[in-house]
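Work through this protein:
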Amino acid sequence: MSFTDWADRALAAVMARVTVTETEVGARFPLYADPRDGSWTTTGRGSWAGGFWAGLLWLRARYTGHDADRRAAAECTARLEDWAGADTATRGLILWYGTALAEGDEEATALAERAARACLDDFDPVAGIVPWGGAFGGPRMLARVDGVPGLVALLGGGGGPSGAAAAAAHLDRHLGLLLGRTGEQRPPAWRFDEGDGTWSPLEDPKPGWSRGRAWLLLAIADALLRPDVTAHSSANLVEAAERLMAQDGVVTGRLIPPAEGTDPDGPVDTSAAAITAVALLKLARVPGAWMDTCSYRGVATLSRLAEAHLSREGDGFPPGMLLDGCYDAGKGLAVRHELVWGDFFLALGLASLDGLVDITRV
């Protein structure tokens, strides 16, 4: 048995689960599934997580090689089109991950480029960010950690030289706010006062949010893999990644972190672990002393997810569910559930081990 046999089995289970989910949700988008029976809570337009469902369908198309699966992925991605002009920095999550695996699909490529140009138009040079935006309500001029992943790659990939510069500035500003100068855990969201040009922290999400740290590490990894972005960055991205990895034992502590670092005995978040694993596998492709550590830790995390948190036949609920994801611990929302983005990042990591995907390009 080769060391990737477990990865092959796990990827097959997740891909089979995608087909079951597709039948259940139809033209809607899955968000999170009940761990008791696998039934999905869905959204009509996908919300901030719609791109991960499209990404899973593109992964399935690669996995099976079937034209019908490719058409299903393309149709799903087309339903994300309205988000290109939406006022939200989560267009990175929606339209990068919803298109990045659509190799050879001209419409998906055009959608990503249109979204990149729209995000570039929305870049605020005074605040130094693409604002969080008002698409989901609340204040518009925010810098939130979940407004960074995907957006670095989207701007850098489809916005030309100006997009790469904006991607670097956007990431640099978030690093300055979210990571600080000493590496202490800082609030994951900040508000910009356009009157006096100052930033103030928000109370929610709280410092120590493991998925927030994972999102930021992923964005740094994406930037380090893009010379056009790093050339414009004023931050030391290698140092930033090292400081993030030192927090809460990212490369030495628990493979599956608690959802909230302030509550180590609370629910864990397998989606944070899956995102972190992908970020580490990307960093393992960036030359440096960390390569072996990142590779080992990334694979070990995927293995733990596959062996201990992925449902199997006979468990009493559908197989192929990545369980123990935590949507929002503070609100008590979906704290031990299957999360569509958790499924996506687990599948992406497994597909990279299987040679199906070049993880440096997604």
